[in-house]
Amino acid sequence: MTPYTPLHLDWAGCLNARDLGGLPLTGGGTVRERVLVRSESPSYLTDDGVAAAGAYGLSRIIDLRRPEELAEWPSRLADRPAYLHLPVQAPGDPEEGPWVHLYQGMLDRHPELFARAVGAVADAPEGPVLVHCAAGKDRTGLVVALALTLAGADVDALADDYEVTNARLAPRYELRAAGAGDDRPAERKVPPTRHVILGALEHLSARHGGVEAYLTGGGLTPGHVRALRARLVGQG
Known about the structure:
Oligomer: single chain
Low-confidence stretches: none
Largest sheet: 6 strands, mixed
Protein name: Protein tyrosine/serine phosphatase
Pfam family, one: Y_phosphatase3
Distance between the termini: 23 Å
CATH topology: Protein-Tyrosine Phosphatase, Chain A
Family: Belongs to the protein-tyrosine phosphatase family.
Number of strands: 6
GO molecular function: phosphoprotein phosphatase activity
Order of helices and strands: EEEHEHEHHEHHHHH
CATH class: Alpha Beta
CATH architecture: Alpha-Beta Complex
Number of helices: 9
Radius of gyration: 16 Å
Strand order of the largest sheet: 1-2-3-6-4-5
InterPro entries: Prot-tyrosine_phosphatase-like (IPR029021), Tyr/Ser_Pase_IphP-type (IPR026893), Tyr_Pase_AS (IPR016130), Tyr_Pase_dom (IPR000387)
Strand content: 5-15%
Structural class: alpha/beta
C-alpha cells in the first residue's frame, strides 16, 4: 500500500480540516489533491480561518448538520454561493448506541439522503469540495467513506484516515473535559476506532449489496458514479 500522510489544512479555529489527496487506491495510484476536503463545522473558524478556507478555492461546501444545529451554530461559510445544506438525518431520528449501531441506523434509514450528499460531491464544479458536519467525524466520516469507496480507495487507508479525527480533535476534547472552551454539545466520551467505519462498510455489503448498490438504490445515477471517479482519481 502507498504510504499515506493526511494533508492537514491550516484553517485557524478548525482542528480537523484536511485534504484527502494522496489517499491510496486499491489498484494503485492515489486520490487527487484539492478535490475532496473534510472538516468539523466552519462555525469554529476565526476570521483568518474563513479567509484561508476561501483562499483554498472551494467549489462546493456540503453541510450535513441538522437544521437545529445550524440555527445554534451557523456556518461561517454559509453566505458563499458554493454552500449547500444537505442533512443526512431527518427530524426526530434516534441516535442509537454504541457507535456501530448509530452508523448502521443512519445508513439504513436514509439511503436517499446519503446518495444526495455523495451526488453533490460528484456533480460539483471543478475545485475542492468540502464535506463537514459538527465534529467532522460521524456524518462526515460516512459520506467521505462512501465517496472514497466508490472511487476505489484502499479500505485500510480509509480507516486510517477515519481515526485521524480522534487525534486532531483531542485538544478540544481535553478543554471540554476541563470545563473550558465553548459550550457546543460534547461528543460521546469514547472516541470511535477504525472498526466502526469498517463495520459500517461491512454492513452495507451484507444488507445492501455494497456501497454502490446502496447509493444507486437511494437515487445515485451511473453518471454520478462516473463523475465521482473522474473527480477523485481521474477515471471515468
